[in-house]
Amino acid sequence: EMIYLDNAATTLYKPEPVRKAVYEAMGTMGNSGRGAWGPALSASRLVYSVREKAAEFFGAWGGASVAFTGNATEALNIAISGLVKKGNHVITTQAEHNSVLRPLYRKEKEGAELTILPVDKKGNFSLEEMEKAVRENTVAVICTHASNVTGNLFPAEEIGKLCRRHGLLFVLDASQSAGEAMIDMKKMHIDVLCFTGHKGLMGPQGTGGICVDPQVKIPPFKVGGSGILSFDREHPKCMPEALEAGTLNIHGIAGLGAAFDYLKETGLERIIKHENRLGEIFYEKVRKIPGVEVYGDFSLTARTGVVSLNVAGYSSKEAGDLLAQGYEIATRAGVHCAPLIHQALGTEKRGTLRFSFSWFNTEEEIQRAALAVKEIAKEWE
In this predicted model, what pLDDT tens digit does every residue of 232-257 receive, in sequence order? Predict the structure, then answer.
């Protein structure tokens, strides 16, 4: 039976209520905001309720502050496209995914300025260097909450305080931390939070969102049907319709709502503790294996359930293929769409072999995975 340890890419195993909610929505939900009859109204009520659940989960400003997107990539494009102008300066880090980097590179070509803070050999960046990077024309810090390569969790609250001191916007990519770490936008001074539904939240693929402080105004990224103000030539500017156009993924949103319920009922702290424990067990096993190099800072008290490594004599993809074919263990090999951190870690040519754990993984699976790594490393010797 396959051992699935690629949860940082997507959680394959979803809670039963999530699967059930998607299935039931397919036969009962109409188009939200497009009718005053039963199924359409049911869809509108569902969308409203899931906005409220997301706002509560992330410590946002109520349901109207939450707009749904297809994923975190779309949410980040919305935020960066709308908030960064020609002549603005933005601070980010080498730990970023291309979903942050590529929209910023596009803005740089359009005349914005960009500072990319370096990370050290353990994948951490310096808050002091971040503060030193602030200029007169700096408008925002845009960065990830957790690295999808190292599993390092970055100090969002301290970054938020830094942004407040300098009057900067704080845009947080929560792709790897939503459902993996405690997030409170108000407490952490996060102005814009971009999240995806299919990873730590254990919701369906094709779901995500952007949570926005009401004081921050982001212009529409895409325009079209909104269900309101149809005679206006311009797209509505009020949230959440300002950042949504066209038919929403109602079926996916139904599953996402069930996922929020599941996380709340199960207990997020309990889930985090379980995943971190699996990560610690795996790390302690593999770090002692001759020929295995592990990446990241495991002295951090707060991490996500991610362990990336390489085995001597193999590229990450070769090692990943051996695990898949010989042991039926699913991992992720390569550069994980985060090129700059691989340059910092010295793994740009080999990539890394990433193990990422979920609530549904067991200690027995982790023990078997560590043993498989040991056997692969021994074969090379």
Answer: 888 889 889 999 988 999 999 999 99
